[in-house]
# Entry
Amino acid sequence: MKTWIAFWNIMLKDVRTYYLKPPNLSWGLIFPLAWTGMFFIKSGRGMESLAGVLPGVVAVSILFGTTSMLAVTVTFEKKTRSFERLLLAPMPLELIMLAKTGGAIVFETLNAFVPVLLAAWLTDLQQVVWGMFTLATVMIAVASTFQGLFIAVAVSEVFEAQTFSNFFRFPMIFLCGLFVPVASLPWMLRPLSYALPLTYGADILHGAVNGVHAMPLTLDFLALGAFCAALFMGSLWNVKRKWIA
# Structure
């Protein structure tokens, strides 16, 4: 069997089996929209400030959607031993893991544009630099998916993966500059913000939507790319150490 056919069918199977399930839709779409609605009601702001919160909504949608998907697809298949059968396929481990994560990256990149379409219906988004916005969305999806993979391969149950993910996801809402600038945080929390990949992705999105970014965009892209590589390599190391050795 050709490698690309196996790669495509692994992705397609995950999309059909897992991605359109209610838990993924609720975490990846309903939660960010509910969070944004609460933000507007609490702050009393109008639609003119919608562009200001759009980067945060998009980033939260990707973060929660991808990590929830990987918590199910990898952990559940590991528990049912179907992942062990997949490891017997005549494919490099790196390609198998990319196939397992590729569907989540594509699905959540598309899912992230649902809030954008809603925002475009409610306010003017002519100022958005769409090329930079799209590239940042893809890179955030890659980094968040690999983060979910790293967590999923470290535990044995789906609920453990979801619980462990929440230790990172909820603090990241406040620490990564999604809705509150990193510069406004207490000084002792700022180093923690810069140690999280979503900080750099959110900075690019703010630059693309509002024209304001705290760090050089080149640094943002390089840091986000470095996090993607480190998380993927760390996940492979964990799979080889815990599942194969």
Summary: The chain has eleven helices and no strands. The chain has a mean pLDDT of 83. Residues 62 and 207 are 18 Å apart (CA to CA). The longest helix spans residues 50-79.
